[in-house]
Amino acid sequence: MTKTTRRHTPYMVQPEYRIYEMNKRLQSRTEDSDNLWWDAFATEFFEDDATLTLSFCLEDGPKRYTIGRTLIPRYFSTVFEGGVTDLYYILKHSKESYHNSSITVDCDQCTMVTQHGKPMFTKVCTEGRLILEFTFDDLMRIKTWHFTIRQYRELVPRSILAMHAQDPQVLDQLSKNITRMGLTNFTLNYLRLCVILEPMQELMSRHKTYNLSPRDCLKTCLFQKWQRMVAPPAEPTRQPTTKRRKRKNSTSSTSNSSAGNNANSTGSKKKTTAANLSLSSQVPGLGAIPNCSLNPGRDGDLCHSTAVTPSGQFKEKH
């Protein structure tokens, strides 16, 4: 009896497995995880030009925040700074579409689960739609992340309610929400701050690369932006066309030159004849040709005319 071995699906055609790996990496986080750990986390799962977008609706209206690659590590760290001890994502009935250089995962039933240890033990389930775009290569990192939050639920264990059943103050505190649309105040404040930080990424990068002062970085960035605005658009380079010369016989060249001379002489005669003919002789009754000038005449008009008298003399009329 022969044993058939099942062949595993190639790694790059399992984009959901990357979310599973990301959940495992987030669970391996410790309290001592510093900025280097979060930078390594973002480098492993996000492209260098990746963007992360969150859309949700608060009491004062709909919100939409988009941050770049340099701000993504700090976003995930603020989730845990707000009292979260565990974070993972659950994708159900996701749809995958393959393109030439990317894979898109559209999950309409995505749940972001956060376990809060403070101010009280609460499990928050944030539901919404998650759209991910992965690069179609061996690394399969996320290029775009867009999470649209629809609703959220905060779950408190019954055991905690039973413990404080006789304490109305604690029950009143347990009945209040600890998040806003599933996001902590730390995360919301950071997203608001990113509205200011995102346009300043060019200044920060220049300061880190060239060790310039903030004022010099601002001057350099503004000058380069001004140069890009006033610089004319680059014209596409045209390839020079090579022309081949055809040899002509002496007889044909002589006949062509003579024909060309005749044509030139005929054309010059026609131009001379047309130049000698005046408008007054061609069109009867035409006695004045208007001649406009920017210099005002005697009456302040900008236009004056030159009239032709019957004797053939020119007389200027204003």
From TrEMBL:
Parts forming coiled coils: none
InterPro entries in UniProt: LIM-bd/SEUSS
Gene: LDB2
Superkingdom in the source lineage: Eukaryota
Region described as Disordered: 232-273, 297-318
Species of the source: Papio anubis (Olive baboon)
Name of the protein in question: LIM domain binding 2
Composition bias, Low complexity: 250-267
